[in-house]
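From the thread on structure requests for the teaching lab: each student submitted one protein with a one-line request. Submission from student K.M.:

"Model Serpin domain-containing protein from Photinus pyralis, C-alpha cells only."
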Amino acid sequence: MGLYGIVVALCVINGVHLAENPTEAPTNEASSYNDADDSNDEYFPVMDWSDTFDWQLLKAIANEHSNNILISPLSIKLALVVLYEGSEGSTKKQFQSVMQYSDQKSEVNAKYRNLLANLEKNKKDYIINIGTRIFLDSTITPLQQYAANVKSSYNTEIKSTNFTDHVAAENLINSWVDGLTHGNIKKLINADEIQDDTLLLVANAVFFKGKWRRKFPVEKSYQGGFYVSPKEVITVDYMANTDTYYYGESKELDAKLLRLPYKGANFGFFIVLPNTKGGLSELLKSVNLQTLKRQLYLMDERKVDVVIPKFKFDFSASYSKILQDFGLTAMFSNTASFPGIARGIGSGGKWLFVNDLKQKSGIEFNEEGSSAFAATEIQLGNKFGESDISFNATHPFLFFIEHQETGSILFAGKMMNPLQNDGPVPPEPESTNSKPPSGENNTAANWRPNNVQIVKPNKQIP
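Reply posted by the TA:
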C-alpha cells in the first residue's frame, strides 16, 4: 500500500461572444519499491524557499471550510503557469504579483523545468506522476512558440479537441486521465458537462505513492478517543510507533511538529499539532512561511512515541473567488488577455477567459494491509513506550507533504475528524482499547482515488 495522493486541478476557459469590446485589448512512470535499508534520515529545510502562495491558499480554504480539507498547491500552480505563459497586459502583471513570477517568462520556464525534473528523479522508492494537458478546440490553432514552451518547460502537450462532439471530447479527456493515474480515475468528465462554446480546458493531475521509512506495526493499532472539539470525543482507529523522528516544539506556534519520512529520502509527511485541543483556529492565524521555516530548521532527531489517527477523505472546492481575492481578477473577466496561446483569439467573437478553477483531492492515511487491521483491537497496559517525548495527535491538526530538495508542497490540509469521508460520517465504532501502545518501526499510509468530475461551468462572466 503506501500513502497515495491524487489531485486533479481543472481550469476551464470558455469562449464567449461578447456584446461589446473588452476594456483591455489583447496584444499581438511508476517504479517498484526498493526495500534496501535507508535508515539514515537527514532533513535540511530549504531556507531560500520563498513561495508564500501555498500557505495563503491553505489558510484561505481552511477559513471557508470547517471540515477536513486537502489541497495540492503544486497542481494549481502547474495549471496556472501554462496560462501565464500565454498572457499579456494586466493579466500577465497580476500573475507576476500574486504568483511571484519573474517578469521574464524564460526565468519562470527554467524554475518549473528544474522543479519537475527534481520531483521525478530517483523514483525507485516511490511513485510520482505529474501531468498537465491543454485540450484546445479544433477550430483554434495554437501558436508554435507557445506549444514548444509549454512542452519543454512544463511537459505539457496541446491536444486538438472537438468540444461540439461531447462524447468524443469526454473520451479523449478521460482516456488521458485514466492513463496518468494508472486507472484510478476513469471518468473525470461527463459528456453532458461539456459546453459547445468551450474553447480550452487545462487539466493537471498529481499522483503520489510513498512508503513509510519507519513502519507503524499493524499489531500496535488500537481504538481510542479523538477530540473533534474540546468537549466532543469520538472513537477512531489509531496507529502507533516509537522510533527516531525529526521533532520540534514551537512556542511561537504553540504547537508540536513531527516529520514522518518516506523511503527514498525525497519526501516527508509533516504534522503540526496544536498544544491545546481547540488550538487549530489560532494556529491557522499564526502560521506563515517565515515562521514555519524557522520551526522546521529547529527540528531535531529525537526518540518519540507517535500516535496518529488513520483517516480517509475526499475534498473538492472552487478556487475562483479565492484567486480573485488574491488579485488574479483579470483572467476571470472580459479583460483577460491570452494572445500568446493560439491564433484567432480576440477575433471573430472568440475570447478566452477563465470561467472557473476547481480541484478535487483525496487521501487515505493508514498502515499497510488496511483490510486486515481495521478489526485489530489490542488491550493495553499503562506503559506507553520507551521515550520521554509523546506526540499524540488526538485532536485536529495541520499536515503537509514536502519535497525535501526543493521545499515544494505537494499536498497540504487540515484533519478535523478522522471519521469524515466523502459521504455521511459513519457511526462510532465500539472502543476496546483506550490507551496507546508502544511501538517501533513503520508501515505505510495511502491514498485511494475516487472518480473525479468537474462541475458544469457557469457561462456568466464573474
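TA comment: The two ends are 43 Å apart (CA to CA). The longest helix spans residues 105-119.
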